[in-house]
Structures are given as structure tokens and as C-alpha cells.
């Protein structure tokens, strides 16, 4: 059997750590840096699959945790796997479910063998181990599958400002405090477990001829521990590696600092995936550090709430100031909401959907509102990636900066004095 | 200015009153008999406009009552009218709002001048008259606009079986009983008002060069009164006429009986529109009586509730028996749910969305469930119309009957012994 994944670096940025590449799987290829829309429950919420592709997405993600609970991995397998089940013929990635088990579930127990948690569907107890997580992903059949790792809070919940911690960290802290929570010890335990579990994942992987297992580097926001996890994880030979435990409540500066440090030390010739990130600035900053793959629920989650991404920042389409606004969400955008002609309307009436119309749809609780803004947001992130790949290849950062004013200070030659990364080296 | 509507009868059925035609408006043409999906609040619920067109729909309908309340007709006008506002460049029809004012609203008063009712949005009192209904529709700018008529209960609520009356009829009855409800008198009043209001509509119509006003025949389920309304309404020269006050709670037999009687007496050379109808049997029966246009919310309303139309009857996709069903909603269907290849998937993975997947989507409350089943149902009704037009042209009713077993007893040469129309002449 041929290699289920190949990664070709097509060009490297002259002035940053960024690269443009192509990942080829048995279900097709995708360009990197890549943004992967999230299809949590085997659907990109509200969007017909061919329209997801129309936004430029070449690979999408499914969440093992949710699919495990419903409809169950065996059922998906019976239906031929996740590709035909969800109507997505291209490359697919599933996470391991570990992150959700930690962050969403009522955790009963974490031990060296795995995690026990309560199902959010029926309250039953679910046991997840490295072996079961891989087995589930083998049944789902995505092209890229993720190791089952131990996700610690990234920063000490006691030390972090409250707005930088999330509820799940507080929950973890409370339960772990009972046994005397020690953040540094927790990171060490996580590092050890993550490495041991990764080997168990690799050993349990029954479809390595078709699916590519990626390891995940942990270590919290502590660079020394990141370095240790890097060594242990990347010591296990795999087709790609991810940075986990980032963007779980830290500041953008911490996200960038940890990502930059970690990405630079990951194997050069393999795809690097920053899990669950993020906003445009996080993505650009990480791509400049050499990260190749990103995923985030922001485009669809914010789209459902009438929040549209534009290059000038997010706008809230429920706002009364848009009530009589005839303009599109964003001038110049070629998404199916801003440019319906691109979607098959050939007549002179193929004008953009107006902000006034979108506001009306949200006021009327019409599904088309979330659909259109999700489409726009998905396209927004794909355009960011396309422009980023272009800028890496051309080294024309000034042009990228003009197109994307919100990230211009992060780019080479950009004014970094006031940028959030100004204090970094 | 050219005629805003022309109607060409392309062929007549040899054995029935049916005809195949083409209606041409300033925004394009549509084939008849036509099924018009309903976009109540300026959107076919859950479906991107180009996908509505992809199901075969050539004309869609908007509801004046809902649009009047939100976002308001002035706003729609400001945005260039309903066509660009809702992203539908083809032919559009708006109803007058009268039916909804009667059926949905808390009616304060009906008199010879118009109707006053409470807004379902903010409780304010709205006054609707023939003039205001036409003015509103002039602002919305649809190609076909409807007269403001007086809608009586079709049958005497006291005489009708309870399951054939609707809540609104009961409401009407209660309020009208206070002044001593007399069904026959109510029908006479309605007939008079409907005719007088129609002339006022015609006089008030300010955009007759672009929009075509259709009159509406009332008369309840009483054929004598239908005949009287026919005479009064069709005496006013208009580009098309509709049958109103049908399918508001009567039996399928009554619907067919009244429709057959009325359609046969409507002007031969103008489009005939049966408002708010209906199920496949109602549509086929009416088309055979010479009706050209239909609209109904069933495809999208039932689609949202996981009820899929098939030629064998409706199936409820939430049902547990579909949990592991790998088949499409309906074998042989070419809709975007049953045949994604038709929607741009070129790969071997372009398999149908399975019933198992659809059940999963509904169980997970994912928007894609309603979207896919609405698309399927919209296509179902368009296929019915396409096959009906084909059968009218070819006079091959046997073939139509084999394709559509649920309506075969209604067709010429079909076994009508047990059919609901068996007792009719």
C-alpha cells in the first residue's frame, strides 16, 4: 500500500519561518497553510457540503467525542465511513476526543490508563483510552487521525486572571485541588502520559496504510516543559505532529509565544498542526512561525450568531445600524453571500445579499441568516489562507498588510511597535 | 411599456381539462402547471436561492402579511424590491396578505372598507384595505400580485366535522356568532365585498406596467355562490385569476369538487391559480381540471420536521427504523440530498446522503437535516409538475400512474372506483 500521506514543501518564506506546502491523502490534497472548518457532528453546521468546498475549504474536521456519543462510530463505519456518511469526498481529519472529554464532560476519573466521563447524551459512563480513541477513529476512517493525549490546563488556574481561564479549567482545578493541585506536577504528568499514550496509540493503529496518525505536543505555557514534550513526542516517528493545549484560555501573547517556540522545534519536513486556533491574528502569527494546519469553530459559530468577520474586524449584523444598509457584508468579498453570481446566478439581479436582508433574516429567525453568514465567514478564513500562501510565496508582505490591516503589524516589515508580539524575539 | 405578463397555452390534454403552458413575466418565464415554493418572510426556509432554482422552481412566492410586519414594504422597496432583497432574480408572486390577516391575526374588525388586526410582532393595530394591500405589493414589486379579498370560512363551521375546521374558523365563528353567524349570508357578503374590493385593487394598482394583478374567486364550498363570485370577479378584466378559500379545512373531495367547478368556468386563455394547495393528490386533481399554478408550504414545513415526501407516501426520517438505513430518501430521486453528484460532487464518494445520516442530523438538531429534506421535498413537487406536464403533452397517463402510484386513481384510465373523486362527474 502507498503512503497514506505525503507532505511537499513548495516554498519557504524568505523572511519568516512560514512555508507553503501541499499535503496529499488518499482522498485528495490540500494546500498549506490550511484552515479546516469544523464539522463537529459530521456536518459543517448549516452548510451543504459542496458549498463548504465552494468557500475554498479542502479539508474538514470531525469531532470523535461527539460522533462516538452519537451516532456511534460503528454506525458510521457501517455506512462506509465518515467521508460518504457526511457527504465530504475530500480529505478529513478527526481529533481523538480527548480534548472534548476533558473540556466538556463531567470527568469521573483520569488515570494512567485513560479517562472516564459521563455522556452528555444519556449520562452513561464512557471510558476512553488511547486504544479506544484510535479504534474509534479507525472506524470513522478520516485521512488524518489524532493521538489521545492528556490535556492539562495550559496555565496555573490559580495564577491566571479569571478572564483567561475557562470554566473547564476551574472545574478541573476544583476536582484536582481535592488532591492538592500542583500545576508544575500536573504538566509533568501530562507530558509523561501524552508520550506513553502516543506510543500506545501508534501500536493500536490498525489502518496505518490508509490513515495518518499525528502526535500531539503538550507542556502548557511552560517552554521548558514544551521542550520536553517535543522531544518525547517527536521521538516517535509519525507522519505529522500537532501543538495541543494552546488557546485554551491564554492570552494571544501566550498563544504566539508557545506556538513560535514549539513550531520551530517540530520536524521540518512534516506537517505542523496548531489545534483549535483561532482568530486571524493567531493564525497569521502561527503560520509565520511555520505552522501548516489550523482548525476552528469560529466561522460557523459566529456566523450563527450574526457575527460576520471582515478585514476591518467583526460586525454584528443584528445591529440596528444595518437595518437599511444595502451593501454586502464586505465589499470585494467573493463568498456566496457577498457575490451570488459566483454561485450560479447569471442575471442582472445577482446582487449581493444586503446587510439589511441579513438583519431581517436574523430578526425573523430564518435559517438563511446563519447559513449566509457562516458561508461568508468560512470564505473569510479561506481568503486569509490564500492570501497568506501568496504572501509567503512572493514575500510581498506589504501587499498582504494592506489587504489585511488587522494583522499587518504581525507581518515582516509591519509596524510591530504596538503589536501584541512586540516584546517577543 | 410591454405587457408585464403573457400566457401561452402550449398544448391541451386530449382526455382532461389540463393544459401545459408558459407564463412570461418581466423577470423571466415559468412553465405551467407550476408549483411555487413559499418564501414567507423573503426566504424559502433554509435553502440558498440558487439551490431553490436547482430543484426546478421557476417562480416563488412571498407573503405580504409577514413582509408588511417585518421588515416593512418601504424597506424592501428601498433595497430595490423583493427580487434583489431575497436574491431571487426570477418570477415572483406575492399574496395580498388578506388570507393571513384573517387566518393568523387577532382580528379586531372586518367591515366594508377593510380589516383591522393586531400585529403578531408588537401588538400594534394594523389596518389593511384593498388600496393598502396593493400599495404594499407595489412596493414589494413582485411580478404577480394578488387582490385583497374577503375570506369567509369555506363551510359552515357549525355543520362541518370538527377535524375539517381549523382553529381560525372556530375563532371567526365565535366572534361572528356574537352578531348571529349565518354562513350563507357570510358567503354572500364575502362575494360582494370581494368583487367590490377587486375593482378598488385594480384602481389602486400603480405599477400595472410591471406587475400583474390577479383577481380571486371566493364563494366557499357552495357551487352556486362560486358561480356568482366567478361572474363578478372575472367580469373585471385582469391578466389572471385565482381560486381562493379552498383548502382551508375542507375534505379532499370538497377541494376537488369546488376546484373542478370553478376552474372550468374561469377564462380559458388566462392563468388559473389555486391558492395554498396542496398535497400531490390535490394538485394533480386540480391540474386535470385546468388549474395552472399552485403554491404550498408543505415541502419546507414538512422538511423541517423530518417528513420526506416520496412517491410511496411520506416517511418520517426521525423514525428508529432508519437508524442504519444506508439508502437515500428515495431511490431514483435526483435532488441534492439523494443525488449529490448532480450538485457538483465529481468524485466516487458522491454518494447519496443516507437515511441513517439524515436521522443522525435530526437527532443532533443539525440545520443540515431540515435543509436536505426541504431540498428533497421541493424537488419532489417539481418532479411531480414535470411529470404532469409531460403526461399532459403526451397523454400517456399510464406511465404517469406507474411513476406516481399515489395519484394513479385520479388519472384518466386510472382505477377510480376507490378514488376520492369516484362520485364526481
Describe what you observe in this structure:
The structure is a homodimer of 425-residue chains. Chain A has 15 helices and 16 strands. Chain A is an alpha/beta fold. The first copy, chain A, folds into two domains: 5-32 and 63-166 and 177-296, TIM Barrel; 304-407, no CATH class. In chain A, β13, α11 and β14 (293-296) form a beta-alpha-beta unit.
Topology:
The structure is a homodimer of 425-residue chains.
Chain A: E1 5-12, E2 19-25, E3 28-32, E4 34-39, H1 49-54, E5 60-62, H2 64-69, H3 73-78, H4 82-86, E6 92-94, H5 98-103, E7 106-110, E8 115-118, E9 125-128, H6 130-140, E10 144-146, H7 167-177, H8 183-204, E11 212-217, H9 223-234, E12 240-243, H10 252-264, E13 272-274, H11 280-288, E14 293-296, H12 298-304, E15 307-310, E16 313-316, H13 355-363, H14 368-394, H15 397-403
Parallel strand pairs in A: 4-5, 4-14, 5-6, 6-10, 10-11, 11-12, 12-13, 13-14
Antiparallel strand pairs in A: 1-2, 2-3, 7-8, 8-9, 15-16
CATH fold-level label of the largest domain in chain A: TIM Barrel
CATH class of the largest domain in chain A: Alpha Beta
The average pLDDT of chain A is 90
Largest sheet of chain A: 8 strands, parallel, barrel
C-alpha end-to-end distance of chain A: 44 Å
CATH architecture title of the largest domain in chain A:
Alpha-Beta Barrel
Total domain modules of chain A: 2
Which word captures the global form of chain A?
globular
Largest interface: A-B, 56 and 55 residues
CATH superfamily of the largest domain in chain A: Queuine tRNA-ribosyltransferase-like
Total number of helices of chain A? 15
Q: Give the number of DSSP strands of chain A.
A: 16
Q: What is the radius of gyration of chain A computed over CA atoms, rounded to a whole number of angstroms?
A: 21 Å
Roughly what percent helix of chain A?
Answer: 25-40%
Structural class by helix and strand composition of chain A:
alpha/beta
Strand line-up in the sheet with most strands of chain A? 4-5-6-10-11-12-13-14
Low-confidence runs of at least 5 consecutive residues of chain A: 162-171, 417-425
Assembly context of the chains: homodimer
In percent, how much strand structure appears in the residues of chain A?
15-25%
Amino acid at each position: 500500500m502507498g503512503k497514506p500521506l505525503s507532505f511537499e514543501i513548495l516554498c519557504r518564506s524568505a523572511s519568516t519561518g512560514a512555508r507553503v506546502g501541499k499535503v496529499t491523502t488518499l482522498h485528495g490534497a490540500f494546500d498549506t497553510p490550511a484552515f479546516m472548518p469544523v464539522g463537529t457532528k459530521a456536518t459543517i453546521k448549516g452548510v451543504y457540503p459542496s458549498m463548504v468546498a465552494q468557500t475554498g475549504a479542502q479539508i474538514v474536521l470531525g469531532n470523535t467525542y461527539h460522533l462516538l456519543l452519537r451516532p456511534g462510530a460503528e454506525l458510521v463505519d457501517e455506512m462506509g465511513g465518515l467521508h460518504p456518511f457526511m457527504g465530504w469526498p475530500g480529505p478529513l481529519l478527526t481529533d481523538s476526543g480527548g480534548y472534548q472529554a476533558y473540556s466538556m464532560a463531567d470527568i469521573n476519573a483520569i488515570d494512567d490508563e485513560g479517562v472516564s466521563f459521563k455522556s452528555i447524551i444519556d449520562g452513561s459512563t464512557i471510558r476512553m483510552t488511547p486504544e479506544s480513541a484510535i479504534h474509534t477513529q479507525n472506524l470513522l476512517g478520516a485521512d488524518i487521525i489524532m493521538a489521545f493525549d492528556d490535556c492539562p490546563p495550559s496555565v496555573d488556574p490559580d495564577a491566571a486572571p479569571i478572564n483567561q481561564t475557562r470554566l473547564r479549567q476551574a472545574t478541573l482545578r476544583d476536582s484536582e485541588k481535592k488532591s492538592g493541585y500542583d500545576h508544575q506536577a500536573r504538566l509533568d504528568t501530562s507530558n509523561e502520559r501524552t508520550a506513553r499514550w502516543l506510543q500506545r496509540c501508534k501500536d493500536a493503529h490498525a489502518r496505518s496504510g490508509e490513515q495518518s496518525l499525528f502526535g500531539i505536543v503538550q507542556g502548557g505555557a511552560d517552554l521548558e516543559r514544551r521542550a520536553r514534550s517535543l522531544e518525547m513526542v517527536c521521538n516517535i516517528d509519525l507522519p505529522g505532529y500537532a501543538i495541543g493545549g494552546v488557546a485554551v484560555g491564554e492570552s494571544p501573547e501566550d498563544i504566539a509565544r508557545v506556538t513560535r517556540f514549539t513550531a520551530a522545534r517540530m520536524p521540518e519536513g512534516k506537517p505542523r498542526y496548531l489545534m483549535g486556533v483561532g482568530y486571524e491574528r493567531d493564525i497569521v502569527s502561527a503560520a509565520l512561525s511555520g505552522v501548516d494546519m489550523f482548525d476552528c469553530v469560529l466561522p460557523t459559530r459566529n456566523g450563527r450568531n450574526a457575527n460576520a468577520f471582515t478585514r476591518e474586524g467583526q460586525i454584528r449584523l443584528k445591529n440596528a445600524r444595518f437595518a437599511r444598509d444595502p451593501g454586502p457584508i464586505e465589499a470585494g468579498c467573493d463568498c456566496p453571500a457577498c457575490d451570488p453570481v459566483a454561485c450560479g446566478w447569471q442575471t442582472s439581479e445577482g446582487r449581493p445579499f444586503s446587510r439589511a436582508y441579513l438583519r431581517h433574516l436574523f430578526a425573523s429567525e430564518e435559517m438563511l441568516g446563519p447559513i449566509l453568514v457562516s458561508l461568508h465567514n468560512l470564505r473569510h478564513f479561506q481568503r486569509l489562507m490564500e492570501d497568506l500562501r501568496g504572501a509567503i510565496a512572493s514575500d510581498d508582505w506589504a501587499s498582504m498588510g494592506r489587504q489585511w490591516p488587522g494583522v499587518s503589524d504581525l507581518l515582516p516589515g509591519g509596524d510591530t511597535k504596538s503589536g501584541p508580539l512586540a516584546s517577543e524575539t
